Amino acid sequence: MISSLSMMVACGDEKSTNPSTEATATEPATTEVVSTEVPATEAPAMAIDRVVAPEASTVSDLLALDRPIVIAHAGGDFDWPHSTMYAFTEAALAGVDVLEMDVMLSADGVLMVQHDNTVDRLTNNTGLVGSYTAAELQAMDNAYWFSGGVWSDKSLPEDAYVFRGVRTGERPAPEGYTADDFAMPTFEQVARAFPDHVLDVEIKIPETETGEVQLDRAYAAAAELARLIEDLDRADSIVVVSFDDSVLSEFRSLIADVATSPGQTSLVNWYLAGAPLDPRDVVFQAPPVYEGIEVLTAETFERAHNEGYEVWVWMNDTTQETTEFYAELVARGADGLLISRPTAAP
Known about the structure:
- By secondary structure, the chain is an alpha/beta fold.
- The chain has a domain at 48-119 and 184-344: Phosphatidylinositol (PI) phosphodiesterase (TIM Barrel), CATH 3.20.20.190.
- It has helices at residues 19-23, 59-63, 85-93, 134-138, 187-193, 215-231, 245-254, 264-273, 298-306, 323-332; strands spanning 69-72, 98-105, 111-113, 198-203, 238-241, 259-260, 283-286, 289-290, 293-294, 310-314, 336-339.
- Helix 6 (215-231) links the parallel strand 4 (198-203) and strand 5 (238-241).
- The two termini are 33 Å apart.
């Protein structure tokens, strides 16, 4: 973003005290206009201003693409810090098709982009996400434990955590970014920042410290997500998923015409018994292996395609995050790769 300021200064009329000027009464005094132009000042160019619209900006256009698509898991959390504006921006600049994120509510009801039930893995704080206000969550360093190439590893030397302290001002932000880009964003922030990217949004199911599932908070998150999608006019550019089918049912009851992926029970029932799915389910999202069973075989892809569904594959083991394995999945029939390493996409 470049801004410029220019200023013209005109000197006021002055009557010369030179005797020869006074003697020539018929010649007016000359007014000299001196201009002083302040050099243009340039604000640092922001990286997000270089993001361009992807090939498809709606779900229908995305599904019509005649090629596998790349979905950046949490912004691409092997390449960049998990669930940060920095990661989403870098992923968009790298040319991904879809930005994937998980959402849950803060203590004061703000829909936050956060994968885990607690802040422990990504920040230097501890505790449930739902126990902090949005302001408290956004003050945390969401890149504190990022080291690249792993989902999380707190045993590395301190200098391995290359973005630690950017959020808190102890280290300068990379060119084109600010400290805020390393905070935990809200869903609204991401949705507004990337109006042309399809978003893949999972409604997380929070738990208490003792592991008790909090479906009421997941339902509340579903309601807030539905409200924001309507307010932001994003109904045609978002896919919503949740592991819990009842949360998806709650979401679907609040907003029409938003694409969804089936929940875990619905997908298992389809896989095992051919049970029908909700008409709004347009894409399956599943891992290559589930509880030791290889579920995404070439036959599974063919069956899904024959019934009109696309299949996006999410990785559930770090060993899967390689160009070779991504290519193998595409060869089997994957329509989308939901990956942590967008830079390694085939």
